[in-house]
Design a protein that fits this description.
The complex is a heterodimer of chains A (411) and B (227). With 411 residues, chain A is an alpha+beta fold. Helix content of chain A is 55%, strand content 19%. Classes of the chains: A alpha+beta (411), B alpha/beta (227).
Chain lengths: 411, 227
C-alpha cells in the first residue's frame, strides 16, 4: 500500500510539470525511434545482402569435393544421387547440380578467361535468380536439343563485343589433363547485379559441361536452397553426417562468403555503439529532468523526510518517476516508429546513388526496405527504459540523502 | 525525573561550523510536561527553529541529551529517528507544509500510510479528524487550490491524525492573517485539551504567546526567561 502511494505521487509528479515531462518523453521517444528504425534498415540491408548472395549464385549450402572451394580444379569431382542427397532431410526447398570450371571463351574476334558453369537449367531457376536475370534473349531450356546454348554475363557480353546467337567457343582442360573445347550459341544475356559474376560468368547446360570435361555423371558442386535461413545449419549438419567419410566438403553461405558475415558483424557492432550512444543521450535527458525536478522539490523532500519518510522510499519514488518517463518515452517512440515505418515501408531507402558500391552486396534492387524484428524492438525499448531508470539512481540518492535541516531552512 | 515530563533537555548545545562558528543553541536545560502547550519565543535568529529541530530529531545536538518519553533521541540512528518522528511526532511548518501532488485527504492520510495502517483504519481516522476540524469541504483539493490558512489547518490535521504524543510547530501562524492565525491557535488548543497532545511552538506572535501555558524565551541561543 505504501508503495502504491509513492507510485501515485511519482505519477502525479510526472504530470506536474507537463512541458518538461513532454520534452523528456519526446527525447526518449525520438531516441528509441531512431534506434528501431535504423536497426530495421540495417537489418533490411543485411537481409538483402544475404538474399542477394544466396539467390544470385551461392545458395544456402554447397557441397564439393574436399578443398574445391579454396582451390577449384577440374580434377575435384564427385557423384551424389538425388536420393542420397535429400532423402529424409527436411527444409530443403530446392537443389541443383553444377560443373564449375575455368575456361577461355573466344569469339571470332575476342577472347577472355571466364568461369564456366554447367547447370541443371530446370532446377537452377528454383535455387537462384538466374532465369529472372536474363536481360535479353532466352534462358537455357534444359532440353537436349539446346545443349549447345549458353548464357553470358552482361559485361562479358560487352567486353567480347558479341551479339545474341553468336558462337562462343569454350576451351578448358579436362580432368585427365587433355584439352577440350566446345562451341555454344549465346541464347541470353544475364544481369545479376553482381559485377564479378556479370563480368566473367558463362552458363551452359550441365550435360554439355560434363561431356566437355569427360565427367560422366559426376559434378563439381551441388547447391541447395533451404526453406528458412535459420535452418541452414541444421540442414548442413544433416548432410555432413550423411556424406561423412566421402571426402566431401559441405559449406554454408557463411563459410563461402565470410566477407558478408564480417560486414554484417561490423554493422552489428556499429548498431550496438549507436544503441549505447542514443541510450546515454536519453538517460542524460531523463537524469537532467529528474535533477531539475528534485531541485525544485527540495523543501518537499525535507517535509517528507521530517514526517518520517524513509530514504529508501524517496529513492523508490524518484526511480518510479524516471520509470514512468521511460515508459512514456517508449510509447512515444513506438508511435514515432510506426509513423516512420509507414514511410519507409512504402518508399524504402534508395541507395541508387551508391549503386556502384553497393550492388555487389545487394544486387540490382538498390531500394532497402526495413525489416522489423520484434526482439530488436523489445531489446531497444528495454535498453532505453533500463538506462533512463538506472541513471536516475544518482538524483534519487541525492533526493533521499538531502540534509533535512537545509531543506527545512528553505521554508 | 517524573513520568509527567514528556520532554527533557539536558545541557543541549548546537554549534554550526560552516566557515565560522555559530552557536545556535547554547547549553539549554528545560522540560515540558505531557499535555503541555509550550511556546519557544524570541526574535529572529534567537535559535527557536534550531531548538525545535533538535527536539524533533531532525538535527542532532553537538552536546547534551534530549529525552522524549524517557528515550534519549540523540542516541538514535537516522533510520530509528525516522521511525521515531513517524510514530511519536507531528510537524507543522511555517508554510509549504503539504505534498503538492496529493489532495488534502491524501496529505492527511500520508503519515498513516507510512505507519502501515490498514485502509479501513486510515479512512476512519482521516474522516474523523477532517470532520472534527471542519475540513470535509477541502478533502479533494490540492494545496495549490487552498488558502494559506486552509493549508495550515490540513497540516495540523496531518500532524495529529495518528495521535502523536507531541506536535512541533515552527511559526505556524507567520504567514496567516490575524483571523486565520486565531482560528489555528484555537484549533491547536482544542486538540491539546481534548486529545492531551503536547504542543510546542516556535513563535514571536504575541497572540500565540498569550495562549501558551509555558513560555521559554530565547536570545542568542540561550534561555533568557521561562514562565
Amino acid at each position: 500500500m505504501t508503495c502504491k502511494t509513492f507510485i501515485l505521487i511519482a505519477w502525479r509528479n510526472v504530470r506536474r510539470n507537463g512541458r518538461r515531462s513532454f520534452l523528456t518523453v519526446l527525447i526518449a521517444g525520438m531516441g528509441l525511434a531512431t534506434l528501431i528504425i535504423s536497426n530495421s534498415l540495417y537489418d533490411g540491408f543485411h537481409e538483402k545482402m544475404i538474399e542477394n548472395a544466396v539467390r544470385v549464385f551461392m545458395g544456402h549450402i554447397q557441397i564439393h569435393s574436399d578443398d574445391f572451394h579454396r582451390n577449384p580444379t577440374v580434377d575435384k569431382y564427385f557423384e551424389l544421387s538425388d536420393k542420397e542427397l535429400i532423402e529424409g532431410i527436411p527444409y530443403i526447398k530446392a537443389f541443383s547440380k553444377r560443373v564449375k570450371f575455368q575456361a577461355l571463351a573466344s569469339t571470332s574476334t575476342n577472347s577472355q578467361a571466364v568461369m564456366a558453369i554447367g547447370i541443371e537449367a530446370g532446377r537452377e531457376k528454383d535455387v537462384t535468380i538466374l532465369e529472372r536475370s536474363v536481360l535479353e534473349g532466352e534462358y537455357l531450356d534444359g532440353g537436349d536439343k539446346n545443349i549447345h546454348s549458353c548464357l553470358v554475363g552482361e559485361f562479358l557480353f560487352e567486353n567480347l563485343r558479341m551479339e545474341l546467337g553468336e558462337k562462343l567457343v569454350l576451351m578448358s582442360q579436362s580432368f585427365d589433363g587433355s584439352l577440350s573445347a566446345d562451341a555454344f550459341r549465346v541464347s541470353g544475356i544475364c544481369r545479376t547485379g553482381n559485377p564479378d559474376i556479370d563480368r566473367s560468368f558463362v552458363w551452359i547446360p550441365l550435360a554439355a559441361a560434363q561431356a566437355m570435361l569427360n565427367y560422366g555423371d559426376n559434378v563439381s558442386e551441388v547447391v541447395l536452397f533451404v526453406e528458412r535461413s535459420d535452418r541452414v545449419d541444421y540442414v548442413k549438419n544433416k548432410i555432413s553426417e550423411r556424406v561423412s567419410g566421402r571426402e566431401l566438403e559441405v559449406l554454408s553461405w557463411k563459410e563461402i562468403a565470410p566477407d558478408i558475415v564480417q560486414l554484417i558483424a561490423l554493422d552489428v557492432a556499429m548498431q550496438r555503439i549507436l544503441m549505447t550512444i542514443i541510450s546515454l543521450i536519453v538517460a542524460v535527458a531523463v537524469m537532467n529532468a529528474m535533477l531539475m525536478s528534485i531541485h525544485e522539490r527540495f523543501t518537499e523532500f525535507g517535509i517528507m523526510s521530517a514526517i518520517g519518510t524513509r530514504p529508501g522510499q524517496i529513492v523508490g519514488m524518484v526511480l518510479w518517476e524516471s520509470f514512468f518517463l521511460g515508459m512514456l518515452g517508449i510509447l512515444c517512440g513506438i508511435i514515432i516508429t510506426l509513423l516512420g515505418m509507414i514511410y519507409f515501408c512504402n518508399h524504402g531507402v534508395n541507395l541508387s546513388s551508391f549503386s556502384a558500391g553497393v550492388s555487389r552486396f545487394i544486387g540490382l534492387e538498390t531500394r532497402i526496405l526495413p525489416v522489423v524484428k520484434w526482439r530488436q524492438v523489445v531489446l531497444s525499448s528495454l535498453f532505453i527504459l533500463a538506462s533512463s531508470t538506472i541513471i536516475s539512481i544518482f538524483p534519487a540518492l541525492k533526493a533521499a540523502h538531502m540534509d533535512t535541516i537545509k531543506t527545512i531552512r528553505h521554508i | 525525573m517524573t513520568d509527567d515530563k514528556l520532554i527533557r533537555l539536558e545541557n543541549v548545545s548546537r554549534v554550526y561550523n560552516g566557515g565560522f562558528k555559530v552557536i545556535a543553541v547554547d547549553s539549554i536545560d528545560f522540560s515540558v510536561e505531557r499535555g503541555g502547550f509550550c511556546c519557544i519565543a524570541g526574535p529572529s535568529g534567537s535559535g527557536k527553529t534550531s531548538l525545535l529541530n533538535l527536539i524533533g530529531g531532525i538535527d542532532k545536538p553537538t552536546s547534551g541529551d534530549i529525552f522524549i518519553e524517557n528515550e534519549n533521541i540523540t542516541a538514535l540512528s537516522r533510520a530509528k529517528l525516522s521511525d521515531f518522528r513517524l510514530k511519536k511526532l507531528g510537524f507543522v511548518f511555517q508554510e509549504l507544509n503539504l505534498i503538492p501532488v496529493l489532495t488534502a485527504r491524501e496529505n492527511i492520510e500520508f503519515p498513516l500510510m507510512l505507519q502501515g495502517w490498514s485502509i479501513e483504519k486510515r479512512e476512519i481516522a482521516v474522516n474523523g479528524i477532517m470532520k472534527e476540524l471542519g475540513l470535509e469541504g477541502l478533502a479533494d483539493r490540492r494545496p495549490a487550490a487552498m488558502s494559506g490558512g486552509q493549508q495550515q489547518r490540513i497540516a495540523v490535521a496531518r500532524a495529529v491524525v495518528s495521535g502523536p504524543s507531541l506536535v512541533l510547530a515552527d511559526e505556524p501562524t507567520a504567514n496567516l492573517d490575524s483571523a486565520n492565525s486565531h482560528n489555528l491557535v484555537e484549533l491547536m488548543k482544542r486538540l491539546n485539551s481534548e486529545k492531551n497532545i503536547t504542543f510546542i511552538f516556535a513563535t514571536h506572535d504575541e497572540s500565540v504567546l498569550r495562549e501558551a501555558r509555558q513560555i521559554v524565551y530565547l536570545r542568542d541561543g540561550k534561555i533568557t526567561g521561562k514562565t
